[in-house]
Model the fold of this input.
Amino acid sequence: MIDTVMANLQAIVVMLFVALGVVVIVWKRGSALSKSQKVRQSGLAHLTTLRQLLAAIQQHRGITNGVLCGDDKLQSRLPALQSDINNHLQTLARLDDGVRNTNSWRSVEENWPRVRVQFKKWSAEQNLFSHNQLLASLLESVEECAQHYRLTELPQKEGESIALLWNDLLRVAECVGQARALGTGVAAKAACSSVERIRLKYLHQSIHRFVTVQNHSDYPTVKRLLGTIENKVLVLVPSVAAVDYFDDATAALDEVFRVFDERVTALSDRV
Done:
């Protein structure tokens, strides 16, 4: 009898240890999953702020180019815009060291103060070049952020890669942003040099290629901007006001960014 009781107790103890082991394994897996979810949610939040910073610096480029080309009607927007950029940078100071210690991010942090202060002393060409370099570093940081927070592992609809967010959407947004800056300068001085015409034609072609192959969005505002560039900017005597062109191009950029934000939100909901 005693032997039977002891055998049963041993069996119960073994079962308890097995059950405890299963609980520990499940807990560890759940904890790891929860940690992975938090990391990715943090990465998606930073990705959104990086996008907002990109948009703000692109606006700064366009406005300053218009000012340097002789139209100061947009200048009153600069103080609030510069404050927004500084606020985004403060938010992004919470990036993990793996992102903040990269050459691209250090370049953003080091070069923005120089661009903000020095642009008035530069030629329009130097101003565009410096902004373009700054934005190239920022786009590189976007990709490094996505890799660091393992965002590329997130599932996308229809088998698409999340990398399309920055390889397609943010790259074409930068093309639109450059077209806005160049076109605003052209409109401000009511003249388009041969170099500006070549650059604008290249940007026009790049944007046109993008919108013609899209299946998910029609981009009507971007298409209207392409028509404006072709009919009112790439002409012998540009016939659009700098402020109007800047605002139309901004609406086109906002259209691209809306698609980006919607896709990031959808990813966040699935994490």
